Amino acid sequence: MSPDGNYFAYTEESAGKQALLLRQVNGTVPVPIVAPDEVTYIGLTFSPTGEFIYYVRQRVNENAGTLYRVLMLGGSPEKLTEHVDTQITFAPDGRYAFGREDHALGRSLLLVAKADGSDEKTLATHRLSDYFCNLGIAWSPDGKIIVCSSHNNFAGEDVLSLIAVQVSNAAESRISSPPWRRINGISWLGDGSGLLVVADEKEDSSSQIFCLSYPSGEARKITYDLNGHDDISLAANSRKLVTIKKARFSNIWLIPDNGDVKQARQVTSGSEAYYDLSWTPDGDILASWKVNDNLDLWVMDTEGKNRRQLTFGPALDFRGQFSPDGRYIIYLSNERDSYNIWRAGADGKNKVQLTSGPGEFTPRISPDGRWVFYQSDGAIRKVSIEGGTPLQLTSKPATNPVVSPNGTLVACYYLDNPKSSEWQVAIIPVSGGNPIKTFEAPLGLIRCKRGVIRWLPDGKALAYSYTCDGVSNLWIQQLNGGKPKRLTDFGADEITSFDWSRDGRQLALLRVSEMNDVALLVD
User: Fold this and answer.
1) Which helix H or strand E contains 391, and what residues bound it?
2) Spelled out in words, what is the top-level CATH class assigned to the domain 7-247+516-522?
C-alpha cells in the first residue's frame, strides 16, 4: 500500500508469467507498471515518499532475486541490487534493509543500503537454518529498530518468532510473542506502538492478523477468517491496510498409470481440506482430512464414499500409510507436542510412539513391512516397525525417503554440498551410505518446492512432483539415465501428494488450488 493509503501495487499471474500492476483503493481499473514476464516476485515496497515502487523478482534459472525500482505510474525499471532474497523495508530517511542468503558462508545476512542501492553494509548474521528475515522484515517508524522473522526451537519444537535488531549497534533481542508456527508478513503501526503480524497459531491452521504490542509482546488476534490471510501492508497513518485473503480447495483425483490427464477422474469435490494420501492393501484410499479444525486419518473407497475415521483427538495426525500386510498404520503425529512417528492398528487403535527425535517427517514403510524410513534433523533414518533404536543412513542433508519395490534401494532428495542450494534426486543403498546415483531436477530447485517422490511400480524409474509458479506436474526419471520426462500436463493446481495403487494400475493425486484476492481493511 502507498504511504498515503490511496494506491496499492500487486502482482498477477497468467499463462506462467507475472506482471506488476497498480490500482487505486477506490478504483476498479488496474494500471500496468511492469509487463508480464517469466519471473517470480518476492516482495513489493513503496518508497517513503510514494514516488517509487521497489520490487524484488527472480527468474526460474536464477538462484537469488534482484531489486529494481520503477516510478509509481510506470516507466523504465532501474536495476539496483543483485542477490536480494527478501522484500525490502524502508527507514524514514530513505535507507532500506533486506535479507540475503550467503551459502558460501552458511549464513543469513541482514543488510542496509541507501535508496539507490549504494553503501551496502551487513548489520546482522544468523545461521541459514534460521531463515532470518525470509518471512517478514520491517523497519520501525523512528528508524531505530529492524524487526525480522526467525526460526528457533521452543520446547523441542520448531517455531517462528520476531527478532528486534538495533540499527545503532546491531544488538538483538527476541520480542516476546506466541510460539507461532508460521509468519506470513509483518508491518509496524505508524506510531511505533506495535506491529501487525500475519501468523499461524498452530500447524495447518488459517493465518490470521495479530496486533503485537511493542516492547511488551502482548498479542491480540484481530481477524477470524476461515481461509486466512497472506502478507500485509499499512498506510503511514495505520488507518488502512491491504492483505491477501486466501481460499484453499483440495481434492483427490484418479488417473490411469499412463498419466493421461484427459482420463483423470475427480473422486472428491467441494472445499474439503485434504493434506496427503496413500493406498490401502485392499484398494481403498487412506487420507488425512481436516474436519472441524482437527486433522485425522480417514479411509474411503475410490468413489470418495464409505468414509471411516481412524484417528481422533486434538493432535494433528497425517502422512499415513498401511503396512503391506494391513496390520498397522504408520503416521506422523504431534500427540506429545513434537512431531514424531507413530504406529496404530488397522482400526486406528493401540497407538505406539516409535520415535522421539527432532524434526521428524515423511515416514514410509519398506515393502517387507519391517522398517519405517523417515527424515529427522536433516538426515534419513530408519526404525523397526516394532520399535527400537533408530539407525541413521545418511551423513549429509537428505529428505523424503522412499524404498524401492524390491526393498534394496532408497530414493530421496539429497544435498551433497550443504553450502550450496543445489538439491538432487539421489539413490542410496537401503543399508545407508553415499549415493550410488544422482539426478538433476527437471526444472531446477531454485525457488521451487521439493515435492513428493515415489518409485514406479516396476522399480525401473522414479516419479516426483515439482511446483513452480503454483502449478505442479509429475516427472519420470529412468534409473538407467537420460533426461527426465514429464508424465502429466496439468496447467493449474499444485500436486501435494500422489501414490500408485498396489497393483500399479491407478495413480491417485491430491490437487490443491488457491484463490488469492486483495482485501482492504479500514479502521
Assistant:
1) strand 391-392
2) mainly beta
